[in-house]
Amino acid sequence: MTEKLSTETRKTLLAPLTDNGWELVEGRDAIRKTFKFGDFADAFGWMTRVAFWAEKWNHHPEWDNIYNTVNVVLTTHDVDGLSTLDVKLARKLDSLAG
Amino acid sequence: MTEKLSTETRKTLLAPLTDNGWELVEGRDAIRKTFKFGDFADAFGWMTRVAFWAEKWNHHPEWDNIYNTVNVVLTTHDVDGLSTLDVKLARKLDSLAG
């Protein structure tokens, strides 16, 4: 069962992400990051790898793409805020972006 | 050489698109449409097919995806407005969405 991040776990889990370029979205309990790639094929190739993990974990990003840029927002609709699923997916996105 | 749609060609070329759910974006010379699919895999599968055509034609959509929904905006940055490339890509998107 997915649960909203508690105040304590939030600090511990989000700190490495904010160190890595993630930031809190204003007015929503969500995090966001902009990923830049060499070109469209690189950007979409990364999105495709992300898509498989998102589907596997049944946890999907909100994202937009313009050419070589992908803006990602992560939140967990079921708990109306951030959960460990977002932390897990954020780490995966970073790792796939290498 | 890609050229901005002239006033005459614009009417002829855009009419079938607006009949098919495309609309002009306010404040920009661009068109947009929202595509809905059964689930994320369907939506992203369609995006992947679109991506190959976009890359082949070197003309890329601005798009966002949330689960089963994809919002697409088409415009031609090189001419700062709509060109025949947008019309061609819009038709392809519709045809791939079947």
Explain what this protein looks like in three dimensions.
The structure is a homodimer of 98-residue chains. With 98 residues, chain A is α+β, with helices and mostly antiparallel strands. In chain A, 45% of the residues lie in helices and 19% in strands. Chain A has three helices and four strands; from the N terminus they run αββαββα. Chain A has a four-stranded antiparallel beta sheet, with helices on one face. In chain A, strand 1 and strand 2 form a beta hairpin. In chain A, helix 2 packs antiparallel against helix 3. In chain A, 32% of the residues are buried. The interface between A and B is medium-sized, with 15 and 15 residues.
In short:
Two copies of one chain form a homodimer. With 98 residues, chain A is of the alpha+beta class.
Task: Summarize this structure as a short list of keywords or feature phrases.
homodimer; about 100 residues; alpha+beta; Gyrase A, domain 2; 3 helices; about 45% helix; about 20% strand; globular
